[in-house]
Each structure stands twice: as C-alpha cells, then as structure tokens.
Amino acid sequence: MTLFLKIFLWFWLAMALIAGAVTLVTRTLQTEPIVRQWQVVVGESMKVHSQTAAQIFDAQGVAGLDVFLKRLESSDRISAVGFYRASGEQIAGDNLPPDVSGTLRNSLLSGEAEFERFETYYLIGKTTALANGETAVLVTQWERPRMSGGYALTTTQVWQIAAVVLTAGLLCYALANYLTSPIVKLRHAARQFAEGDLQTRLNIKRRDELGELAREFDRMAARIETLVTSEKRLTQDISHELRSPLARLNVALELARAKSNDGTKPLIERIETESNRLNEMISRLLVLSKLETGSETFSRTEVNLTRLFEQVVADANFEAQANGKSVKILEKDAVKVFGNENLLRSAIENVLRNAVRYTKDGTSVEAELSRANKNAVISVRDYGAGVPEAELEKLFRPFYRVQMARERKTGGIGLGLAIAERAVHAHDGTIAAGNTENGLAVEIILPVLS
C-alpha cells in the first residue's frame, strides 16, 4: 500500500470516527433532557388523574371508577390502568402485568409519581387519599417515549452524515496529496538520476520539511553532476593529451628498433607490447568518454544485426582458436535494428572477447541471436568460473575487475563491458549478466525495426 493511500485512509477513518462520535454524543445528550421533561409532564398528569380517580370512587363507587379508567386506557400512550389500595388489593382496572408490587411500594414510600422502566413500557404509580383517609395508588402502563425515532437515524440525518464523511474524504484526499506529492516527485527524480539523467531537478518551492528535502536533493544532484562531469572531462582530456607523447614514443621506438641488437631486441618488443596496450586503453577511454558525455553524435542507419553478429562471432572465434578455445553460434534469427553499426559492433565484440578471455581452455563460448516480440536478444555464455552474485551489477563499471581476476593473468583493463553497456544504452537497449551452472551469461536486448 502506497504512503498516499495510507495517509488518505487513516485521515478519512479518523474524520469518520470523529463525526460518528460527535453524532452519538450529541444525540445522547439531547435524549436525556427530553426524557426528564417527559417524566415531569407525565408526573403532573398522574397527579391529576389519581386525584380524579379518588373523587370518582368516593362519589360513584367502583362502577364510576371503571368508566373513568376505561377512558384513560383509551388514550394514545396509556395501554393499561389499575387502582389499588395500600394493601395491594386491586379496586378496579385490568390489563396490567400480574406483579406491580414494586411500583406500589415505591409510590407509597415517596408519595410522588414513581417510574418503573421496562423494555417497551413504563409502569407509573401515584398515591392519592380517599375520603375515608385511606391511601390508594393509581398505576398506569405507558408506552416508552419515542425521541424523534429513538436512536434510529432519519433519511435526512443519514444524508447529512454521508455529506460530512464525503466532505472529510475530499479534504483528506487533498491533504494526503499535498503531503505525498513531493515524495512522489522525489522518487521519480531519483529514478531518472539513477538512470543517468544528471540534470534532473525537483524545483519544489514549498517552505516545509518536504520542501527543504527537495532543495537538499537538488543541491546533491548539482554537486554530483559537477563531480561526474568533471571526472568525465578529465578522463577525456587526459586521453587526448596522452595521444601526443604516445605517438612520439612509437616514433622513438621505431628508431630504437633500427639500432637494436640481439640483446636489446626483447626489451624493445616488450616496450612495443606495452605501448600497444596503452594505445588500446586510450582508445577505449575516448570511446567511453564520448558515450558518457554525449560529446559526439553518432549517425544511425538501418543495420542488419544478423550479418553483423556473424562477422563479430567469426572474428572472435579466430582469436579464440589461437588459445585453444572457440566461439560457436547456437541460434541465428534474421533481425534488423536502427542504430550505429560501429557502436553495436563494439558492444557485441567486447562481450564476446570478455567471454573468450574467461572461458576455460578447450571450451566453446556459445552465442545466440533471437527475436522476441519487438526485441532482438543476443546471449553470450562462457564456461568459466562465473562471478560472485554480489559483484554482478559491478561488472559494467569502468576499470572494475572481479577480485579473483585482479592478478591480470587473463589480461584486460576493465573497460570492455563498460563500453558495451554505454553503447547498448545509447540504442535504448539493456544489458545484464547472470551466473549459469557452468559459467557466466550476458544478455543484450535491443529494439528491432518493425
């Protein structure tokens, strides 16, 4: 679950709970005063009814009292009425529950209207005095008061609560979006920056902690861009500057060769080997620098990748055979791409040379070119010692060499795969390495022409 969704849902839930709690408390506080007011009104009515019942009983006896009680019972809220002596003997009335002793007792003790609450009704008793000085009690059964529908919500109230919750949801959405939008922008910017776009900036003008974080990111990005650009420019400048003394060294080497003898000839050959190696390194550095800085625009045309693949494999196989190894094609589909042929050749060639360098003697490097949907897939597998899993992602860094290969018995300067990666990325492709059961496999994926 995203941070935006978490913030939005938690805020919305909190607002909904607050609205529900406020509604419940408000309705509860409103209901209690109404009940008390109802009891006051009913108490006054019971006082009048009890006195009237006593007067009618004194004047007309039980017959007249029954008529009066029937009239009370026919009212909207009273469902049963009884008239009792203090001893509990019922003088008149019917339909009351069998046991009203509690109501009688409480009424006799207080002399006021007493309410005994049941699930759906109240029993209310009120004492009165008869003409002979005897105390009697009028007991009535009243329906419980309906407080605007009790706790049940009306349709209007439901719509009001829904409107409150919806409004809270919109406000929470706006708040969650306000809080998380800089984080989303920061994530996208970090991804772009990691993919090599060093000019990525957020430019967020907020004055809170998130705005400060965005400005710190921009400062960091600017600093890294400056350092990386300076490093690339320095590498390119050094490579260019080394060309001149290297050219003079080669001239001096040829002059020395003309004057060499049997004793100095091996030394001159050694100097020539190292000079050639240095020249190759400088050439690769210049290519890598151009790819990284984009200082040179490479022309793009339609390239027959199948034919190019065959040529590079044939050249790699020729070099491998000199060391008791070989390169063979397992699969070869017809594929065309749009790009720079020299860059593509360099990428495939560097991957193949790296595989030939590290595959075991007497083994064959296996190469495949296949088409998968709209992509061309080039796979190169060797039968070497592989690479530790933790170092696979570092293979494409310039000058990086796996720890166990640092003794340089296999040669190489750690630029081949770095150049291959930059060349593939220049064609909107991807390159990745992974261990197999018997060695290392490198896979290049390039978009093809439709």
Key descriptive features of the protein:
450 residues, alpha+beta, Beta-Lactamase, Helix Hairpins, Heat Shock Protein 90, 3 domains, five-stranded mixed sheet, 8 helices, rod-shaped
Average per-residue pLDDT, rounded, comes to 82
Write down the domain tally. 3
Task: Please report which band the strand proportion falls in: under 5%, 5-15%, 15-25%, 25-35%, 35-45% or over 45%.
Answer: 15-25%
Q: How much helix, percentage-wise, in residues? A: 40-55%
Look at the structure and give the CATH class of the largest domain: Alpha Beta
The backbone outline, from C-alpha atoms, is rod-shaped
Structural class: alpha+beta
- Within CATH, the superfamily of the largest domain carries the name Histidine kinase-like ATPase, C-terminal domain
Instruction: Please name the CATH topology of the largest domain.
Output: Heat Shock Protein 90
Q: Give the helix tally.
A: 8
Cα Rg: 49 Å
Beta strands, count? 12
Overall CATH architecture of the largest domain: 2-Layer Sandwich
Main sheet attributes: strand count, strand direction, barrel closure: 5 strands, antiparallel
**Low-confidence parts lasting 5 or more residues at pLDDT below 50?**
404-409
Order of helices and strands: HEEHEEEHHHEHEEHEEHEE
Kindly report how far apart the N and C termini lie: 38 Å
Strand order of the biggest β-sheet: 2-1-5-4-3
Characterise this structure:
The strands form 3 sheets. The protein has a 5-stranded antiparallel β-sheet, with helices on both faces. Strands 7-9-10-12-11 form a 5-stranded mixed β-sheet. The protein contains 8 helices and 12 strands. With 450 residues, the protein is an alpha+beta fold. It starts with a helix and ends with a strand.
